[in-house]
């Protein structure tokens, strides 16, 4: 019996996304997610403590500077819990971009020797970061219990906000990964850009500070609806911001689709440039 012969050819132009192929390689995908999680915590002194330290230390600095000195509004809740509730989703998003954008270069030895769906590479770090997010989220719930703050009924909507956060991170991650394979400047620009982007999201301030006429444009940043949704559902700082979530949902999906298509378009050049 003759073995089945499979001929692999690089995609031309704007190649489609082969979801069936991704499903066939699901075991490899899960292995890469587990590898990223294991790499982060193995031989680490603090272990899972790193998932808490980054947003926690940032919260302390923000509370002193913005909550204490600048007297920033916190929608009726202590500024510490207000800022931490924004930092938990934002830290996940920022760290996902950092790791996903450099994932293709890090996996260069694998990319140049073995065939598998390359889309696995930038998506795996985004899902691996959910472990950090889950740990920080539990710490947020503990802080709320200590302060006597209880979630609203809209806490049931939090998984949808998490999904929107993952979709946004995957979209930007695939786009930045494809760009960083050709332009190594992306890695350095992203470090600076993520710091600036934090001020374009309501991490240290509420959306009530944004003029009404600019709120629709401001909410095109998908993380605006996610962060304000988290605060509304968990802290009850405001009614659930359905308008902000709706404004950000479309750009989130568009970025995911364009990021995947652009990644597929550039895929044929990866082995030559990384």
What does this structure look like?
This protein has 274 residues and is mainly alpha-helical. Helices cover 68% and strands 0% of the residues. It contains 14 helices and no strands. It has helices at 19-24, 26-41, 49-69, 79-101, 103-106, 108-111, 120-128, 130-147, 158-182, 185-197, 215-218, 222-234, 242-266, 270-273. It starts with 18 loop residues before the first helix and ends with a helix. The relative contact order is 0.15. The mean pLDDT is 85.
Which features characterize this protein?
mainly alpha; 14 helices; 0% strand; 274 residues; globular; 68% helix
Distance between the termini: 39 Å
Mean pLDDT: 85
Low-confidence stretches: none
Q: Total strand count, please?
A: 0
- Work out the radius of gyration: 20 Å
Q: Helicity range of the residues?
A: 55-70%
* Beta strand %: under 5%
Question: What summary fits the major beta sheet?
Answer: none
Structural class: mainly alpha
**SSE run:** HHHHHHHHHHHHHH
């Amino acid at each position: 019996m003759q073995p089945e012969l499979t001929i692999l050819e690089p995609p031309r132009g704007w190649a489609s996304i082969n979801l069936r192929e991704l499903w066939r390689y699901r075991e490899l995908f899960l292995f890469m997610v587990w590898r990223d999680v294991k790499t982060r915590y193995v031989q680490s002194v603090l272990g899972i403590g790193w998932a808490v330290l980054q947003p926690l230390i940032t919260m302390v600095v923000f509370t002193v500077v913005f909550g204490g000195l600048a007297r920033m509004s916190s929608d009726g809740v202590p500024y510490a819990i207000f800022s931490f509730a924004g930092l938990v989703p934002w830290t996940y998003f920022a760290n996902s971009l950092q790791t996903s954008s450099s994932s293709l270069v890090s996996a260069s030895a694998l990319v140049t020797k073995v065939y598998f769906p390359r889309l696995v590479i930038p998506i795996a770090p985004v899902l691996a970061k959910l472990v950090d997010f889950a740990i920080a989220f539990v710490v947020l719930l503990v802080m709320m219990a200590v302060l006597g703050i209880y979630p609203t009924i809209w806490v049931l909507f939090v998984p949808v906000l998490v999904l929107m956060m993952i979709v946004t991170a995957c979209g930007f991650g695939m786009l930045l990964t494809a760009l960083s394979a050709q332009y190594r400047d992306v890695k350095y620009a992203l470090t600076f850009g993520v710091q600036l982007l934090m001020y374009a999201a309501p991490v240290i301030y509420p959306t009530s500070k944004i003029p009404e006429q600019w709120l629709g444009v401001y909410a095109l940043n998908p993380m605006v609806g996610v962060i304000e949704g988290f605060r509304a559902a968990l802290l009850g700082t405001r009614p659930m911001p359905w308008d902000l979530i709706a404004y950000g949902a479309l750009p989130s999906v568009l970025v995911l689709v364009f990021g995947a298509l652009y990644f597929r378009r550039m895929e044929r050049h990866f082995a030559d440039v990384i």
